[in-house]
Amino acid sequence: MTTHVFPGLGCVPLINYLAALGVAKGISEQADPAARFGWCDGVFHIDTEVEDVAEFFVRDFVPTPVFSPWNAGSGFGAKDKTPLEYIWMLESSTAHRLAPYRNALAVIRSLLIAKSEKGWTKERFVQELRNRLPDDALPWTDASVVLTAKKTEYPPILGTGGNDGRLDFSTNVHQRLKDVLPELGAKPERSRAWMQDLLWGRSTEKLLAASVGQGDPVGAGTPGSSAFGSADAMVNPWGFILMVEGAMLFAASVAKRLGEQNSRVAIPFTVSSSPDGPIPGSAKEEGRGELWAPLLESVTLTELRQVFEEARVSWDGGTASSAVSMYAAVRSFGVNRGISVFQRFGFLKRNGLAFVAVPLDHVTVKARPEVVMAREPLRRARTFHKASGVASKTAARRFDASVTAFVRDPEWWNGIAMLRAQTELELTALRSRKNREELGHPSKLVPANAVIPVCQELFLKSPEARIAAGIASATFLPPTTSQQGGGSGGQPIRRLLVGADPKNPKDPIDPEVMVPGLGARPTVDVLADLMVWLAQHPGEDTHLARGWLPFLSHRYLVPWADIHAWVGGLLDDDLVTHHLLAFLAVDWSRRKDVDTVTSDGECLFLDPTLAILQALASRSVRVRGTASDATGVAVGLEPSWPLQLRADRVADVHRAASGVINRGTIRLPWAEETDIQVHTHSTRMSQPGLGPRILAALAAPSKPWALRRSAPEVENTESYETTDLYEGALQ
User: Fold this and answer.
1) Which domain holds residue 587?
2) Are 558 and 665 part of one and the same domain?
3) Phi/psi class of residue 551: alpha, beta or left (left: φ > 0; alpha: ψ in -120 to 50)?
4) What is residue 268's three-state secondary structure?
5) Positive or negative: CA dihedral 355, 356, 360, 365
6) Cα separation of the two ends of the chain
7) Residues 451-478: what's their mean pLDDT?
């Protein structure tokens, strides 16, 4: 047993990968069935009794018959002059190793006569070929053409039925056989040199100026392949022959699965085309599929055929059919048979009418449970991908690119980008009345329990993300709805910021009602308008003696210092917007435990007006003299204050809110009810734009913590003391 390592047969380009399979196929079928082969660090190796691999192929290799009589220009038409000459050459040869070619030709010619007499369709002709051709001629047919109950499909690995634009694979194989087989006039020394160059990655023998097809983007002479624009197409004839031989292995399971599922899915490791990924293309770029080539370390040909026949790449309860589901499968161990690495190729139109197999990624199979976060966004996006309009199509493409990036590399920043793209897709689609009327009800949002673990690092270091999560997790009481305790009847705030889901029977809000501008206008302005809308459309809250509360609950609590720092202009508004768009794509209602990030007590900024309003919005202020366990005694915000704040009348609101605080009692965290008196004026109230910013901050979770920070020693027994909320604050 000799171990051969062939550096020329790596995993890229596609011609080298398939040629390696062709070498393994030829040796295993014709010389050494026990040969074991595979890739190590992207380099092909084979353990075999054959000592001189190059000599074996030059002297003994029997090529698989390759004919495409269903294609025009394949040598079987009246005008196919040059292709016909090569077919006659093969037919007239007496070489033993070309006997399979002669046997296949005899069957094809008899069927062509029958076809002309009976007027067969192309599908009928292909079916009769499969029924009558010798077994050794079937691999090419099954790899080139797939007959389904509905139509004829063409596996992308061999173009469209064995041709690629003007290049017919079968005719080119015949030409290359003439170049390398001594029985057809080739010089053995030159043939051997080409084979050795292919195996060892050398260039001792001049390549032929001939078409190579999609398997070698550089050798195909595509634009940019030369410093002068494009070079002539060049090919190693043995590389082309063995590429076709290797491609036939991917037909192993096609015939057995006809009628059971989509034919393209049935072809091993072949999925629908995706222009997005490591090498993105134009929105209108045409693709005809992707090949995820498995790189096994050590298998026999029999074992490899079993891998292809029993290939299982599953995601979300089904077979992977796209690049996204393939990435998700390899990140969640949805791959069997011990495959540890894939080389991803995309068949993209890059040279006129011709396609090239572009290497897109080298993918290692490893467990990344975070990819489960992409499941619900993918399901939900199916509805919005049907939305009409150019803007919706563009947003859908951005979402596809973002979800591909996440499942490829499931880190929190890619997850946030994916969720933001989902929200932007929905915002774009729901602007259209037509889409709202025609789209079906989408599936559920991704639960917060799936998002929070992925974004744990983000929440620890980013106050902007915490604020955004707090706002996105809010629920409010719809107009004309009565709140009977326990947070029942609440609706997620995304209903007003993103829009109501189409055809949602449980949505009590008019689909036309929405606070516009999220993502297009400053987020502070959008949230300020949201608070005004809530004040003008209150529900009936039984906890209140008077006033109004904007929210029922928040499922993600935020340290008060974060919110005050935002009001003080110490945080990045763009980051708040970025994360808010993302977290509005999350279902916070199914979160059992309220999350929060514990503050270290550091106060970078404290706004006195906001501190007072937060206490009132938190249901902590009570009517003086009422029992602590009584209901209907809480004092909330006045409904007129949001409009005043929107108009930047901060002084008026501060004065009125201070009076409410001074006349009531307040339940501080970790303390009994107490009295607090605050100043009715502030030196900061004249700052332009402060009112809308304070109003926007009230969309985040509200607690009286800022008041507790400013007056920690106040007791009930003391007379009313004035507490300056600026005291001790860093400005």
Assistant:
1) 474-573+580-723
2) yes
3) beta
4) coil
5) positive
6) 79
7) 95
